[in-house]
Recover the amino acids of this structure.
């Protein structure tokens, strides 16, 4: 429908069809209601069929699309890895330690190389977020499964 | 007439006025930072408003949305980078004016035009919304489903570069919304045995991921590109705006305000489309069309009036039908739900005072950002150039994690936010439409409920949607919008191919 303009039309088309097929199979495994009606399946199936049709339309009109800029992919993959590790670290070691590690990592990825600045961020960021969100707003902090700095400070 | 007591109530509440003032500043600063949008600011601040009373919370976010739309013009005029998609049309004449040493003059035109446009939209909303709600109360499930269906099609197909990818974004939003327990039969759907997934995907982490973390990922590609501001003019004749200079802009501002207000009422179209339609229409009717694009004040006034006029009317489908007309509307649904306020036509019966107080806050917010923008836009521009992006975006990155956690106190939501952030970035890169994805996610629950209710009412199955005239009308509107959009894109593609040949 918009031939040759968007990047990676074949890959996107195949991906849409595959997601649609997987969603169709999963939708058909949704239990019927007590009267044997399909009520809970209608919308999941509609979304899945729509994806298959749109994927097929994408493939049908596929021509050479715009090139996909891969220059920054390593940095983006790095930030994604930091993100996932950060959430896991919060669950394992609590908010303070994980934020003390994630803050300099994020600054590094965005180009900060000043060691003193990274060290200040490692202390200032967890302290500031802890005070604002967990003290001032009263949100219950996520506690570490293995160890949490708050245990040492008595929950301060 | 409900608006006058509401205005009096807001004006005599210093705390509420303080929130509106803060929102006017926050929205303007965020809107002016290239890459950041009002939607991102609202998404990240949303969890903070859980701890506020409903009116200050809604007013704070609503005014950020208004002020953020205006703030985009600061970046467009001073940095030659539109702060928001809606201000890209402003850039066409705004930046050439700044290069001529008329940055302050252009900013004043943008401010006055934005304020007039926004006031027009807000007044039309206040005048018409109760009437629309009264009509909406008469709609049954088949008609409401047809409205939802038309909204899916319009949102998916009209905005964005690709119709297929826009509609696929909407379909993906529907599928993600299906995760969890079916609200009618409590059957598990797409949960794959995970307990966390039985609660469904939270709206707040999804939006923080798509609009905030997704933007942080995108900003990696902009690392090391500092925003530079054009030199401020010191000559009073270049910086001051006279009535004689603004007078030719007025017809464009009035016309564009109505264009923006009309487009704002249609779900999903948004301020960027309004701004470009108003710019094109203004240029077509201008006495000086050759000057447009090279630094015409009218070329700043028209898109600015239109993009701000969208703000008020875009609330009409949200408040009357529960259908968000914009991403900001989708986020505001979260605030209404968190505070236990049921949106839709009955809202004007159950929470009438709150709705009119919110409109009053909107009117006061417009006046506030107008005054701040008229006298302080250049100062805000200078302030933004001093914020190093290599520090700003890591701070936004860290804030998005704690904000996502705060929404339900659940680390699973933070994983959802990370996944949504990456998906949001990938969608932008591949010309999918993140706004259509999120709005469809929000719409899916209501659409499914009305669809199934309509089938229970029907003796003829799906035929109920074509035998009820209003339902049929909305189905036709949806398909017509799709047809026109495909035809328009095909024409552009053919013209492009002919030019290349």
């Amino acid at each position: 429908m918009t031939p040759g303009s968007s990047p990676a039309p074949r890959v996107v088309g195949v991906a849409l069809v595959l997601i649609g097929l997987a969603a169709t199979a999963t939708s058909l495994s949704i239990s019927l209601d007590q009267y044997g009606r399909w009520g809970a399946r209608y919308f999941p199936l509609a979304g899945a069929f729509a994806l298959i049709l749109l994927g097929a339309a994408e493939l049908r009109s596929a021509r050479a699309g715009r090139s996909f800029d891969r220059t920054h992919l390593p940095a983006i993959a790095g930030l994604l890895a930091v993100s996932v590790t950060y959430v896991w670290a919060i669950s394992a070691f609590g908010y303070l330690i994980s934020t003390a590690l994630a803050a300099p990592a994020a600054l590094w990825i965005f180009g900060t190389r000043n060691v003193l600045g990274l060290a200040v961020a490692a202390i200032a960021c967890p302290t500031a977020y802890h005070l604002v969100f967990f003290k001032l707003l009263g949100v219950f902090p996520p506690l570490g499964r293995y160890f949490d700095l708050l245990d040492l400070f008595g929950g301060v | 007439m409900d608006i006058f007591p509401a205005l009096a109530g807001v004006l005599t509440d210093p705390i509420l006025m303080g929130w509106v003032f803060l929102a006017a500043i926050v929205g303007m600063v965020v809107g002016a930072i290239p890459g950041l949008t009002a939607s991102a600011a609202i998404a990240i601040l949303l969890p903070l408003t859980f701890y506020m009373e409903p009116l200050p919370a809604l007013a704070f976010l609503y005014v950020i949305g208004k002020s953020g739309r205006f703030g985009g013009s600061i970046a467009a005029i001073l940095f030659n980078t539109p702060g928001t998609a809606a201000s890209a049309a402003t850039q066409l004449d705004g930046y050439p004016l700044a290069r001529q040493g008329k940055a302050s003059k252009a900013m004043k035109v943008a401010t006055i035009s934005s304020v007039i446009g926004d006031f027009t939209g807000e007044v039309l909303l206040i005048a018409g919304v109760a009437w629309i709600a009264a009509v909406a109360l008469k709609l049954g499930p088949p008609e409401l489903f047809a409205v939802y269906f038309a909204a899916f099609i319009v949102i998916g197909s009209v905005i964005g570069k690709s119709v297929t990818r826009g509609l696929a974004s909407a379909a993906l939003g529907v599928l993600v919304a299906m995760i969890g327990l079916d609200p009618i039969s409590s059957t598990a759907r797409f949960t794959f045995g995970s307990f966390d997934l039985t609660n469904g995907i939270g709206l707040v982490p999804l939006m923080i991921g798509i609009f905030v973390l997704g933007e942080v990922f995108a900003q990696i590609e902009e690392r090391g590109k500092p925003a530079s501001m054009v030199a401020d003019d010191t000559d009073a004749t270049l910086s001051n705006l006279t009535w004689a200079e603004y007078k030719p802009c007025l017809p464009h501002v009035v016309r564009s305000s109505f264009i923006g207000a009309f487009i704002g009422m249609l779900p999903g179209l948004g301020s960027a489309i309004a701004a470009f339609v108003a710019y094109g229409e203004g240029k077509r009717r201008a006495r000086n069309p050759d000057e447009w694009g090279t630094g015409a004040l009218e070329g700043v006034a028209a898109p600015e009036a239109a993009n701000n006029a969208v703000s008020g009317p875009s609330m009409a489908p949200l408040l009357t039908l529960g259908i968000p007309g914009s991403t900001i509307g989708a986020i505001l649904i979260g605030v209404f739900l968190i505070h236990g306020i049921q949106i839709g036509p009955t809202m004007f019966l159950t929470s009438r005072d709150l709705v009119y107080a919110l409109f009053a806050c909107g009117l006061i917010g417009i006046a506030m950002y107008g005054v701040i923008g008229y006298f302080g836009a250049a100062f805000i521009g200078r302030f933004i150039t001093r914020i190093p992006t290599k520090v700003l975006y890591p701070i936004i990155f860290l804030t998005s994690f704690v904000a996502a956690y705060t929404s339900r106190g659940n680390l699973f939501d933070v994983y959802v936010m990370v996944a949504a952030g990456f998906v949001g970035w990938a969608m932008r890169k591949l010309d999918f439409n993140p706004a259509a994805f999120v709005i469809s996610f929000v719409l899916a629950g209501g659409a499914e409920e009305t669809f199934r209710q309509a089938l229970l009412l029907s003796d003829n199955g799906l035929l109920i949607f074509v035998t009820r005239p209003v339902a049929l009308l909305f189905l036709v509107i949806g398909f017509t919008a799709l047809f026109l959009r495909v035809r328009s894109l095909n024409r552009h593609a053919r013209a492009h191919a002919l030019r290349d040949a």
Chain B has one domain: 3-226+241-500.
